[in-house]
Amino acid sequence: MRDLPQPSAQALVPFISVADMMAIIHRVGLEAALRDLTDRIEADFRRWATFDKTARVASHSDIGVIELMPTSDGSRYAFKYVNGHPANTRAGLQTVTAFGVLSQVATGYPLMFAEMTMLTALRTAATSALAARHLAPKGARVMALIGNGAQAEFQALALKAVCGIDTVRLYDVDPAATEKCARNLEGSGLTVVPCPSAEAATLGAQIITTCTADKRNATVLHDNMIGEGVHINAIGGDCPGKTELAPALLDRAQTFVEFEPQTRVEGEIQQMPADYPVAALWQVITGAVEGRRDAGQITLFDGVGFAIEDFTALNWLYDQVHAGSQMLDVIADPDDPRDLYGMLMRAQRPKA
Predict the structure, then answer these.
(1) Is the residue at 123 inside a domain?
(2) 261: left (phi over 0), alpha (psi -120 to 50) or beta
(3) Distance CA 315, CA 123 (A)
(4) Residue 222 sits in a domain of what CATH number?
(5) Residue 86 is part of which domain span?
(6) Which of 120, 147, 181, 255 is 20–30 Å from 158 (CA)?
(7) Is there a single domain that holds both residue 55 and residue 196?
(8) Could you give the angle at which helices 117-135 and 307-320 cross, rounded to 10 degrees?
(9) Nearest residue to 124 (alpha-carbon basis) of 25, 281, 235, 238
(10) Following CA atoms 183, 31, 123, 275 in sequence, which dihedral angle do they give, to the nearest 10 degrees?
(11) Residue 342: how many other CB atoms lie within 10 Å
(12) Phi-psi bin for 196: left (phi > 0), alpha (psi -120 to 50), beta?
C-alpha cells in the first residue's frame, strides 16, 4: 500500500493547549508574567493609532453571550472567541471560556492557535493593574475585591505585582467563593481579609475592584459606600444590561474607558446619558489627557475588555513558544498552490 502524503512544515501551526499554557505560566512565574503583560499592554496602548479598532461582534441570548474580538496592527492580526454564561457554574462549567488565533497579515497564514481562558484571566488582570498604575492614588496599599470567582486571584496578584498592594479585602455573595479565594492567596505575601459585606470590604481600601458575573443591572457599589480618594476598577459589566455601580457614583467619578463606542454599549456608562464625559485610558498613558488630578478625586476604570489587549496577550504568548510545541495540521499546502484538487486526489486511499 502506498504511503499517503504527509503534512508539510508549512501546513503545521503551533497549538498552545491548556496544559501548555499552565506550563508556560509556571516557567515564567505568574507575577512576572503579569508584570510583563502589563508593560506590553501599556506599550501597545501607546501606539493605539496603529491598530484596527472595532467593537466586538456579540451574539446575545437570555442566558449569555458569545463574542468575537478582532484587531490588527498591520503586521499581525489576532482574534479571540469568548463566551460569558453566568449560570454555567451551577453545571460545573466555566463562566468564561476562550480561544484565539494569531496570524501574519502579509500572507494571512496563522502563526499560532491558543487556549485563551487562562490567558484572558491574565490579560484582564494586567489591564486592571495598568489602569490602577496610572489612576490610583499614590501609595495605595489596600484593595477591596468584590466578586471572588475565577478572575479574583489574578486581579489581586496583578495589583500586588504591578502596584505594590499588600492587603486585599474580600467579599462575595457566595461565602464559598470567598473561602476559595482566601485559601488560594495563602502564602502569596498578601494580607487577606474576608469581609461580611461589600460595604465592609471597601473600608480603608484605596483601590476597589468589582468583578461579579450576574448578567443583570446590579448595584454592587452604592454611592454612599465610596469616599474620596479612591480608584475603582469596574470590570464585571461587560455586555448590555449588565452593570455593577450606582449611577450616582458615576456622577461623582472621573471615568476612563478602553474603546468608547464599545463601552457605551457594554460598560457602566450604558446607564448614563450619551453626553456623559469619559476619557480614554490610552490617552492618559501617552500624556494627552490628565489622569488623577488630586488625592481626593474618585477615578473609575470602566473596563469591558478590548481586542488590543488580547492581541498583546497572544503576541506575548507567541514569544514563549519554543521548539517542540504541539503542531496542528490546519493549512492545506499542495505542491502546486493552484492544485488543491490534485492534493485531495493523492490523499485517496487505494482500494483493497
Answers:
(1) no
(2) alpha
(3) 12
(4) 3.40.50.720
(5) 9-118+308-346
(6) 255
(7) no
(8) 120
(9) 235
(10) 90
(11) 12
(12) alpha
Judge whether 208 and 182 are in contact, CB under 8 Å: no
**Spatial strand order in the sheet of 76-84:** 57-61, 64-72, 76-84, 98-104, 110-115, 12-16, 326-329
At residue 11 the predicted structure's pLDDT band, cuts being 50, 70 and 90, is: confident
As for how many domains the chain has, the answer is: 2
Task: List pLDDT tens digits, range 221-276.
Answer: 999 999 999 999 999 877 788 899 999 999 999 999 999 999 999 999 999 999 99
Question: What's the rounded Cα separation, in Å, for the pair 263 and 304?
Answer: 7
Q: Which three cell numbers stand for residue 139?
A: 501609595
Q: Which residue has the cell 490579560?
A: 123
All cell numbers assigned to 302: 470602566
Give the DSSP letter of residue 280.
E
Those residues with Cβ within 8 angstroms of residue 214's Cβ, 6 or more apart along the chain or in another chain: 86, 242
C-alpha span between 152 and 347 (Å, rounded) = 50
Q: What is the pLDDT of residues 307-323, one digit of tens each?
A: 999 999 999 999 999 76
Residues 114, 143, single domain; the answer is no
Which residues form the catalytic set?
Answer: 238
What whole-number distance in Å separates Cα of residue 308 and Cα of residue 73? 9
Q: Taking Cα atoms as reference points, which of 98, 96, 125 lies closest to residue 113?
A: 98
Task: Name the nearest CA neighbour of 153 among 189, 125, 195.
Answer: 125
- Domain presence at residue 2: no
> Cell 493523492 sits at which residue?
346
What CATH number is attached to the domain comprising 97?
3.30.1780.10
Residue pair 334/342 in contact by the 8 Å Cβ criterion = yes
Find the helix packing angle between 152-163 and 117-135, rounded to 10°: 40
